[in-house]
Structures are given as C-alpha cells and as structure tokens.
C-alpha cells in the first residue's frame, strides 16, 4: 500500500530544506486497533516486530486516513531516494495557566506563530516532535510549523522595535511552554534500550531463528558458538554506541545550564538559567568570557567571538550589531550573506564585548535548543544522512538471489524427502526442519559482520596515519573518487602569508615599491595608518590574535595594540575601544596613537572590510581593505592609477596575493556607530596595493601530480583573486605548462533580466607577441587544434559562476567539464559547485581547512577537513596533519576497502553455495553433513578467513583507474558463476565417482578399510561401558557417515580455502596477498588440518567428525580433483576476470559507452569543433532562473555514481 497525496491529508515539512519530509494525517480506529492486538497475541509478537521494522504498515492497518487538522497520528516520509517512513503521535499542550484574559494573548501582532498556534477557546497547542525539533499546528495556514526560532519575516527595524525592550514575563512563559526548554539534551541511552534495539535488528532475529532451528536439530555446539559470537558482536556494538552517547552527552551538557541575564519589558534585568530562554528574549552580554547557550542577533554593541566550534578556525571573529534599516525586506534578506556578522551562534565563546553609547551589549534570542547552530551539528550526528552507494544496493540484490537459491533448495528438499518418505519413514517435522535448514546454509549469517570487519580495519589503518573518520561507510565511497576540489589558502598554500611589498599610490600614480623586509621602516602617512588600523585584531591571552594576513600586516608597522583600558571619546562617551600605539621599534610618528572607533568586519560576499578610526586628539577617518578590484570600484576614479589593471595583473600572474587599500576623511558630528557601511565605503581615496607572498606547501605539487597520474581530476575552489589562483594552479601542477587557460566572464545586465558570457584566452597576448601582425584567420586553426584535444582549462569567478547558473544553465555542465579554477567563491557557491559536479556523476572529494568550506565538506561524497576543531564533526574525515597528503592516502585506503568488500561478498557467497550444494547432494541420499562437520566449516574455516582476509593493506601506488563500484557487474558475476560451476562439477564428480569404486558399499561403511573395522570391534569388546556409548553414537551417526559424505565434505571444505585464496585480490588496489602474513599462515594451517583429516586414520577423530576411512588412492584422487579446481579457478580469475585489456576490448567490440553524464558530455564536446567559442560573447535575454532554485543546489541525499543510468 502506498501514499496517494490528498487534499488536507498531505503536506510538506521543512520545504526546500535539507531535512525535507512529507507528512500524512491519520486517525486511530478502535476496532482496527483491537484486531491488531489480537494479531500480536496470535502471532506470538511476530506481527508487532514486523510493525516495528515497518512503521508505515502499522499506521496503514491501525488507522484511517484523515486531514492533518484532525490527525492524532502522523506518518512522515523522507523525500530522498530511500523514502524512509517514521510514525509520530500528536500531543497537546495547554497554555490556559498563563492566559486568563484577552490581554494575556502573546504578541499583539497577528503574524506571530505563537498567537496562531493557540486554539481558541480551548487554549491548546497541537504539536509533534520530529528529530528533536518541535512543530506546532498553525491554525491559520493549516500546517505544522517549526517553533524555537524567531520568524524570518521580521525586518531589521522590527527586530529592534518589537524585541529591543525584551519580552514581558507572561509572553516569556507562554513561549517557554510552546517551544520547550532551551537545551540540547542528548541523554545517555540506557544499556537495556540499546540492547533491545540491537537485538531487534533483522539480522539478529534471523540469527535467533537459525539458533532455534539448530537446537531443534541437536547442532548444539554450533548454535552455542553462534550465540557466543552474536552476543559478543551485540555487546561490542552496544559498548560502542554507549561510548558515543556519553561522548555526545558531554559535548553538549555544558551549554544546558549557564546563568544568563535577560531584560524583561517593564521589569528590568533578571538573572535566570539558560534553559528558560525563548526566541525573542533580550540577552545582556557582560564583559568577560561567555559561552553562548543559544543563537542570538546582536542589536547593540560589538563582540569578538571564538567560533572554532563552528568553523574550525580559531581566529577571533568580530560581530557587529544589526543595523536599524527602515525597509520592508526581512532582516536575513536585507543582510544577504553577511547576516552571520550579526549573529552569535550557540556553543561559541564571546571573548570580548564592546558597548556602544547605549551602555550595554544586547542580543535578541534567535533560535533555541536543537534549532541552533550547535543543535544542528548535534542532530547531524544523531540522524546522519543515509548513503545510497551502489555497493550497498547491490548487496540487497545479492542477498535476494541467495534467498531465491534457498527457496529452490527448500522445494528440492521437501520433494526428495516426500518421494522417499515411505521408504525411510522420515517424520514430517524432520523434513520441515531440514528444509528450513537450507535457508541458514544458503544465506550466510556472518556476511554483515564480515563486511564490517573490513571497514573497521581500514578505519584503524587511517587512524594510525592521522586521518579520523566519523562515517566508516564512506571509506568505501572514497575508493570511487574521481574529482577532488581543494581550497587554496591553508590547504594548497601555507597558512601564513609573508609581506613581499607595498605599492603606494599618490595623485593617481603608483610610487616606488617598498619591499619587505626593509632596512628602513614605512614612512608615516595614510598608507601606514591603513596598515595600523584596518584589521580586526585583538589581544587575547597576552597575544595578538586574528586573521594571519592582518597579523603580518600589523606587525610590519612595529606598533602595538593597547587593549587594557577604556578610552574616552568626545562623540560617544566612555566605550571600550581598541587603541594602537607606536611600539619600541616603531619609526617616529606625530601621534600618540589611533583609536579604532567602529568596524565593518570582513565579508566574503563583499570581499572587503572597513574601520572608522581617529587619531588621539585628531580627525576621524575611514580605512578600507579588500580585493583590489572591489576596493578600486569604491574609490573616486581620479585617485585610481590608470595602469591599475596592468599592475594588478603583473603581481597576481606571479602568484602573489594582492590587497587593495583606501581611505577617506569623515565629517565630525555624526557618531561612527550611526554611519552605514554604504556611507563609509563610498568616494574613497585609493592608497595602494599590499603584495603578499603565499607559498605552496612542500607536499602540494607531489600530491597533485600523484592524483593527476591516477586520472583523478583536481579543481581549485578559492576566495582569492582569479589571477593569483591561476598562477598557483600552474605552479602546483593542476594546469600543465602546455595547456591553455580560458577565462570565462559572465555579467548580468541592468535589472538582472539579461546577461552576457565571454570566453577569453589568457595567453592571447603572448600569441600576438609571437605571431606579430599575422592575420587572425591563420592563427584560428592552430587555436582550434590545441583546444580540440581537450588541453584547456576554464577559470571563472564566483560572480561569473552565479551568473552562468542563473542565465546560462545549459552551458554550466560544459564549463564544469573543463573548469579547473573557481576564484572569489563564497561558501554557498562552493557547496553549490560540489553539488553541480555530483549532478554530472562525478564522485567528489572536498579538501579544505574547515573555515569557509563546512558546507562543501558536508555535501561532498568525501569531505576531508584539515582542522581538528569541533566543527569537523560535520566533515566525514578529519586529518590531524594540515596536509593534502591525506587525500591520496584516503583514496588508496578507500580503493582497498572497496576491493576487500567485493572479495568478502564473493567469498561469503561461494562458501554458502559450496556448503549448500554439498548438503543438497547428500539430501539426495537422505544424508547430510554432521554436527562437527558444519562446525568445522563455519567456525574453523569461514569465521577465521572472514576476520583475516581484510588484513591486506592498500597498494602504495594509485593506478589510473578505479575499482568497480557495483557487485552486479559482468566480471564479478562471471567470477561467481564460474566458481559455482567449478565447485558443483567437482562435488558431483566426487559424489558419482566414489559410488563407482570397487570398495564402495552403501550399507557397510567399513568395507574400504577392513583393518579399521576389525580394530573398532576389538576396542568395543575390550571397553564395556565405552563400547555401549560408541554403539549408541554409531546408531545416531548412521544418517551422516557414508563414503559420499566423507568425499563431499572434504572436497567442499578444501574448496572453501581455494576460493578464499583465489578471491583475495592483490595488485593493483591492494598489496600482494603474500604480504598478509596472518591470512597466509591461517590458510596454510587450515589446509594442514584438512589434509590431516583426509589422511589420518584416527578412529576417535573420524567418529567425532562423522568421517569414514577410504583407501589412500581415493584420498590422492581427491587431492588431484582439488588441485585441478585450484588451477582452473586461478587461471580463469587471472586470465579472464582480472584481465582489464580483455574487458576493454569487449567494451569496444560491443560498442559499450559509459552512462556517466560527464563521460557522455566529454564524448559530445570532442566531436564539436565550435567548442569552446574563443573570443566570442553570448547574450541571454531570457528571464533569469531564480537564485533559490540553483544556488541552494540539491541536498545530495544520495551517494551514487549513476554509472548505469542517466
């Protein structure tokens, strides 16, 4: 039964967000409920267990469909590929205790969710709780809406007006009841709960079924062994889950009980515990360190915050108050990407506060509990995104095939025993047990455990190399990576920048360059003042802290920060401002110091920062620094040198990082805090260029060369200047010296309804220099020839990328196919780019320092953070050493883990089928393997092999192709089918040929070795009591002991060792098998024991193992059969299955083309002589696609290569 969305019955929860869900309304029906309870009792709880696994069936059978307004049960379904269902009960909250009269209703305005959620006259609020977030029923819009957040529709002025004085006590109480406590409560899960949840896993239920069956069949030892192994596995899992639960609980508990000061409307300041906070509360931030218990919007004053928990960067961040802008735009839309500059995030630490003229630093509570930034981080750990990797989907098909095999075996068993039932007088119960036994043989119960061990070993190996993983299943996905995006600063290049030079500008002309380090200091002037004050540095714990660029720039002045006392300013009274003064080694300056009055912090979107500063006893000035192109646009044209662009190109083309500087004088009278950013950053005077050297890390070039040799694409995604990025890409080896770089520039026209896109070769000038005044038509074929072979790279800025995404959507995939450098990219554009690559069917890795890359790290198939801060929990992988050397290491380990998973699948499938075929052959004679025979195969052979096969390490060299991504692929299926046929042939051959031997007898199992028979008789007569026990045992064993049993069991057991050896792949993804010493020793040991069992004539041992004595010639014949099987199996595996040239030839012969989007596109572009259109401009007059539709990108719920489907 599926869902058919009907009016009022269906809605969407969190529409457009990452955790989007569909919600359906249901009402419980008494008679249906009674029938289900009866079903639970009659099925001994089996029906209840089924409903536990399938909550949607529970709802569909127990309830009737109704509108969401009437529902007492809701069914939620995820909108990803998995369509996972969950069931939630609707609860009611009463607010009648706080609302006595009409005047007590919360919020006089009608647009508040708190007034819309309260049903009149009952004063009840209808709620559901989904993934720790509370939703209330909005009685006006007739939908469930999230609470615990301040609504987005408030404008900047509305935030100040409505919440600037605080909430009344009554409003606060009502909001607290509706929103719940402001806690990120992650309780430590009791062990009994974890145990029950683990035991009810379908895998363990299957184990329980198997164990009950084995007890019924007297397979006591194996049943006990499986119980022991299962309990051990359960306890280890529970221990691990409990440890994680405690760790997570400790991570968040410190934020749940902090004393805070809030301002109450008409009641003044009040101290209370942080769990009482609600959205809209006015928080007072006092001096000194404070841990933030919620997300809050700063409405007055300024703060310096340590956001390492969120960004992974322990650089202090300056926060400024929300402007009192009088417009109709919601505050987030008005502030655009810069809204974060006004928001204090939960879990971060306020290390310094600076009050403005209003005396205190205030912030309005924006989000509480799990709605906060910290809460979102914790929820991403509690509810990780499921993975849709092909291996795991194929595994389900694989198990289905094995179940189908089991079904055939069951029918065969019933038929064989039924046809011979009269003759052998088999009881019906015994036949049923034997038929059910086939399921436990054909479906290997140890398969999930065996797969998990391989991943655990990979995780441990990565840990030893300093790479930590919080999502072990992603290790296999790393084996498929074919594109890696790298951040530049701090990832490819050194974290710190070195000052190289300063190019001052005066009267519209650049002056002589001032080089660093220099014997003489910088001369006093506007440029010197800009270096001294245009930064967001603070003194923290006795050290100057802040952006490394700012630190280097400020250190060059030899000034010091005096941040120890309060400084008086004429315009705005006593405030805590930063003052910079000349240091001991500073050149003489005509001022005592400069006070930084106000800051407009650096913005990724605006690519600049500004400060308002005042010389002590002097004039007030504004200073701006940022991207040179941006700063120049803000300056008066007459102050910018005419050769600005050529000078900028000169330095960026050499790989320098260039910063533009500008200033302007401000008129006295207006307080600095009242000035808007637009007022300050206009009509500036251009001061010059600060040139900084950003060296490549030592390991960058070798790592990128290794990835290139392995045909793994590398892409640079940076916030830096495009010329600098291209130069670094060339120096690092991302762009080969012989390859051409094509700059793609896209610009929006007026009104954003049209746009243009231009392709321009960066080498155009060089070509002209070499060719002189030759005709353009003559050079064109040469250009086309160079470009036709694909030896070109596109470079574009974030602005161009955004314009292409909105106006030239059809061109985006073509540009991404050869796009190598993406510069001036904002954090959201980085995430969008990763998602666009994924849409082209690339497996994308993202490596960054965690600062602006958090979003991209999260959406990539494999995000690798080079920061160990708490924020790295959002990234699946974290490297202890901030070096990109971890990327090839992770890919190597991923490839090895993926191949190990395939080996394990093949081995477990073959082991099951070999045992299955052996048992079915013996069932033909109404015989089977004995208890200890099963025990030996399952425990001594398979379990030990399953544990040791995964010890093989990754091959040190990355080859230029990837391992297969799917189980259901021709080579793998052929390998499994052929080995099944070899095993079947050998077992049938042994089964038939043994019956043709002259010494064979169906009734006398001692006919082949009369001496053994005589010896047994003598021993029986000489030991009275022992003889009776042996006689009893012999009677029970007659069903097992036979020449066929001995032959088939020995052949199948050693065959398991053969397939283990043949399937243990070495090169090119894993080291040769002989390097796995433990596995080789295990195989030798097991083979030795098997051969000992084959050739040893020890009566007690043979009796226990249900074996019978056969002539030595027959034993040698069996060794011969096994040797032939090994030789054929090994030859086929090496000459056919692992023969890559053969499979490539077959693909070519049958004209097989990859179905990956990027491969098809590549093929099409190779045939297109007009691509890329050099020195051409296209125009788009069509209406732009909405920003929300594209910049947000898709939420990447799957991790799927789409190799087989477009």
TrEMBL record:
Lineage: Eukaryota, Metazoa, Chordata, Craniata, Vertebrata
GO MF annotations, alphabetized: ATP binding; ATP hydrolysis activity; ATPase-coupled monoatomic cation transmembrane transporter activity; metal ion binding; P-type ion transporter activity; polyamine transmembrane transporter activity
The protein, known as: Cation-transporting ATPase
Cation-transporting P-type ATPase N-terminal domain sequence ranges: 146-219
Superkingdom: Eukaryota
Class of this enzyme: translocase
Compartment(s) where it occurs, according to its Swiss-Prot or TrEMBL record: Membrane
Location (main, coarse): membrane
Keywords: ATP-binding, Magnesium, Membrane, Metal-binding, Nucleotide-binding, Translocase, Transmembrane, Transmembrane helix
Segments passing through the bilayer: 222-241, 395-419, 439-457, 908-926, 932-951, 972-994, 1046-1064, 1076-1096, 1116-1137
The UniProt record lists the keyword ATP-binding: yes
Membrane topology of this protein: Multi-pass membrane protein
Enzyme Commission number(s): 7.2.2.-
Alphabetical list of InterPro entries matching this protein: ATPase_P-typ_cation-transptr_N (IPR004014), ATPase_P-typ_cyto_dom_N (IPR023299), ATPase_P-typ_P_site (IPR018303), ATPase_P-typ_TM_dom_sf (IPR023298), ATPase_P-typ_transduc_dom_A_sf (IPR008250), ATPase_P-type_domA (IPR059000), HAD-like_sf (IPR036412), HAD_sf (IPR023214)
């Amino acid at each position: 039964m599926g869902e058919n969305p009907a009016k009022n019955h269906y809605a969407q929860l969190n529409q457009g967000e990452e955790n989007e869900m569909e919600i359906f309304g249901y009402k419980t029906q008494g008679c249906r409920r009674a029938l289900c309870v009866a079903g639970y009792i009659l099925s001994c709880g089996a029906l209840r267990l089924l409903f536990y696994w399938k909550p949607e069936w529970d709802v569909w059978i127990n309830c009737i469909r109704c509108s969401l307004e009437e529902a007492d049960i809701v069914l939620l379904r995820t909108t990803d590929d998995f369509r996972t269902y969950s069931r939630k009960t609707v609860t009611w909250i009463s607010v009648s205790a706080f609302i006595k009269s009409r005047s007590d209703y919360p919020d006089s305005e009608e647009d508040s969710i708190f007034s819309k959620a309260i049903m009149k006259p009952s004063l009840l609020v209808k709620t559901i709780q989904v993934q720790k977030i509370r939703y209330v029923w909005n009685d006006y819009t007739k939908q469930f809406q999230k609470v615990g957040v301040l609504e987005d529709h408030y404008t900047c002025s509305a935030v100040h007006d409505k919440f600037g004085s605080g909430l009344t006590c009554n409003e606060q109480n009502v909001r607290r009841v509706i929103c719940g406590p402001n806690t990120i409560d992650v309780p430590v899960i009791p062990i009994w709960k974890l145990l029950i949840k683990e035991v009810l896993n379908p895998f363990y239920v299957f184990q329980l079924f198997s164990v009950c069956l084995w007890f019924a069949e007297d397979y006591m030892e194996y049943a006990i062994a499986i119980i022991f192994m299962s309990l051990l596995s359960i306890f280890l899992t529970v221990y691990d889950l409990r440890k994680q639960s405690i760790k997570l609980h400790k991570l968040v508990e410190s934020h749940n009980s902090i004393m805070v000061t809030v301002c109450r409307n008409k009641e003044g300041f009040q101290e209370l515990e942080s769990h009482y906070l609600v959205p809209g509360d006015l928080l007072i931030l006092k001096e000194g360190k404070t841990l933030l218990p919620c997300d809050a919007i700063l409405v007055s004053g300024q703060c310096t915050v340590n956001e390492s928990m969120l960004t992974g960067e322990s650089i202090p961040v300056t926060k400024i108050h929300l402007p009192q802008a009088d417009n109709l735009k919601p505050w987030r839309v008005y502030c655009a990407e810069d809204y974060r500059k006004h928001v204090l995030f939960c879990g971060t630490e306020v290390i310094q506060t600076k009050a403005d003229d209003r005396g205190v630093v205030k912030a309005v509570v924006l989000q509480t509990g799990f709605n906060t930034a910290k809460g979102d981080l914790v929820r991403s750990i509690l509810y990780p995104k499921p993975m849709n990797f092909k291996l795991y989907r194929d595994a389900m098909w694989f198990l289905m095939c094995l179940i189908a095999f089991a079904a055939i075996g069951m029918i065969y068993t019933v038929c064989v025993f039924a046809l011979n039932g009269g003759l052998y007088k088999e009881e019906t119960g015994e036949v049923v047990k034997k038929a059910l036994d086939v399921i436990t043989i054909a479906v290997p119960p140890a398969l999930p455990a065996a797969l998990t061990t391989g991943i655990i070993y990979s995780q441990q190996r990565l840990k030893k190399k300093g790479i930590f993983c919080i999502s072990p299943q992603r290790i296999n996905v790393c084996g498929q990576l074919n594109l890696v995006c790298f951040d530049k600063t701090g990832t490819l290049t050194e974290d710190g920048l070195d000052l190289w030079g300063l190019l001052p500008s005066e009267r519209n002309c650049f002056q002589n360059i001032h080089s660093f380090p220099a014997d003489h200091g910088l001369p006093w002037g506007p440029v010197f003042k800009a270096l001294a004050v245009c930064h967001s540095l603070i003194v923290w714990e006795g050290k100057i802290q802040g952006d490394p660029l700012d630190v280097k720039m400020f250190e060059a002045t030899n000034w010091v920060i005096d941040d120890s006392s309060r400084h008086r300013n004429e315009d705005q009274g006593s405030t805590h401002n930063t003052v910079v003064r000349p240091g001991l080694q500073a050149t003489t300056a005509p001022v005592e110091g400069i006070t930084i009055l106000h800051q407009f912090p650096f913005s990724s979107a605006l690519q600049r920062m500004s400060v308002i500063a005042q010389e002590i006893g002097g004039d007030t000035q504004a200073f701006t620094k940022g991207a040179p192109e941006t700063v120049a646009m803000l300056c008066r044209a007459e102050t910018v040198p005419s050769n600005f662009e050529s000078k900028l190109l000169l330095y960026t083309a050499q790989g320098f990082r260039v910063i533009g500087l500008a200033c302007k004088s401000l008129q006295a009278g207006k307080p600095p805090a009242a000035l808007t950013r637009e007022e300050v950053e206009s009509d500036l005077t251009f001061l010059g260029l600060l040139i900084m050297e950003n060296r490549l890390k030592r390991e960058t070039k070798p790592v990128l060369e290794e990835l290139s040799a392995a045909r793994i694409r590398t892409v640079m995604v940076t916030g830096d200047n495009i010329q600098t990025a291209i130069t670094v890409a060339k120096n690092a080896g991302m762009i080969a010296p012989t390859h051409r770089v094509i700059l793609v520039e896209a610009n929006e026209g007026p009104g954003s309804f049209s746009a243009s896109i231009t392709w321009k070769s960066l080498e155009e000038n060089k070509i002209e220099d070499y060719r002189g005044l030759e005709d353009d038509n003559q050079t064109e074929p040469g250009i086309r020839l160079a470009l036709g072979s694909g030896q070109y790279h596109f470079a574009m800025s974030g602005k161009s990328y955004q314009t292409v995404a909105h106006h030239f959507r059809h061109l985006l995939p073509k540009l991404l196919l050869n796009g190598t450098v993406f510069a001036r990219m904002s954090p959201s554009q980085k995430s969008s780019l990763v998602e666009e690559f994924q849409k082209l069917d690339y497996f994308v890795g993202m490596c960054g320092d965690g600062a602006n890359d958090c979003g991209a790290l999260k959406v990539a198939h494999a995000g690798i953070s080079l920061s160990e801060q708490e924020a790295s929990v959002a990234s699946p992988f974290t490297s202890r050493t901030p070096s990109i050397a971890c990327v090839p290491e992770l890919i190597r380990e991923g490839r090895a883990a993926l191949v190990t998973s395939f080996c394990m699948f093949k081995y477990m499938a073959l082991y099951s089928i070999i045992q299955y075929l052996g048992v079915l052959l013996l069932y033909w004679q109404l015989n089977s393997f004995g208890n200890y025979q099963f025990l030996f195969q399952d425990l001594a052979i398979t379990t030990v092999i399953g544990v040791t096969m995964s010890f093989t390490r990754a091959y040190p060299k990355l080859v230029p192709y990837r391992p297969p991504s799917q189980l259901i692929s021709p080579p793998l299926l052929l390998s499994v089918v052929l080995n099944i046929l070899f095993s079947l042939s050998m077992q049938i051959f042994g089964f038939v040929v043994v019956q043709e031997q002259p010494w064979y007898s169906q009734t006398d199992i001692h006919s082949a070795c009369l001496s053994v028979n005589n010896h047994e008789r003598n021993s029986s007569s000489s030991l009275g009591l022992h003889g009776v026990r042996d006689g009893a045992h012999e009677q029970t064993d007659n069903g097992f002991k036979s020449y066929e049993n001995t032959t088939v069991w020995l052949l199948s057991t050693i065959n398991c060792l053969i397939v283990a050896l043949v399937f243990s792949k070495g090169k090119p993804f894993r080291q040769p098998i002989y390097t796995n010493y433990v596995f080789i020793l295990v195989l030798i040991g097991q083979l030795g024991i098997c051969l000992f069992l084959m050739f040893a004539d020890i009566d007690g041992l043979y009796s226990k193992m249900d074996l019978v004595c056969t002539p030595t010639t027959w034993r040698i014949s069996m060794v011969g059969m096994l040797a032939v099987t090994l030789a054929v199996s090994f030859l086929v595996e090496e000459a056919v299955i692992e023969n890559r040239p053969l499979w490539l030839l077959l693909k070519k012969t049958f004209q097989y083309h990859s179905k990956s989007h990027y491969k098809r596109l590549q093929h099409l572009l190779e045939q297109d002589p007009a691509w890329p259109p050099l020195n051409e401009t296209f125009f788009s007059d069509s209406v732009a696609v909405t920003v929300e539709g594209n910049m947000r990108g898709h939420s990447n719920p799957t991790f799927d290569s789409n190799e087989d489907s477009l």
